[in-house]
Write a structure and sequence with these properties.
about 80 residues; mainly beta; 4-stranded mixed beta sheet; 8 strands
Length: about 80
């Protein structure tokens, strides 16, 4: 399984986008999404600012066109590579 740091999005780009922003509750331990078991092409997605794992063991391409807001630092991250 590989790990990829996501791109932090400037607020102006997030507001102008039609993508959904999924927000993790501040201080929540662990990732927002975890897939159990062996996944082909699995990856972890890390916050581009603080490095927290927001997604673990999820197949590449499962999450598209959404932003993930980190519950630790508040940064909004783009899941698209």
């Amino acid at each position: 399984m590989s790990a990829r740091k996501m791109r932090v999005m400037p607020a102006v780009e997030v507001k102008g986008s039609r993508a959904a922003v999924l927000t993790q509750v501040r201080g929540t331990p662990g990732p927002m999404f975890v897939t159990e078991g062996e996944q082909p092409d699995a990856e972890s997605l890390l916050c581009g600012s603080c490095g927290k794992a927001l997604v673990e063991n999820v197949r590449r391409g499962t999450l598209v066109d959404v932003f993930l807001q980190c519950g630790d630092c508040g940064s909004v991250n783009d899941v698209n590579p």
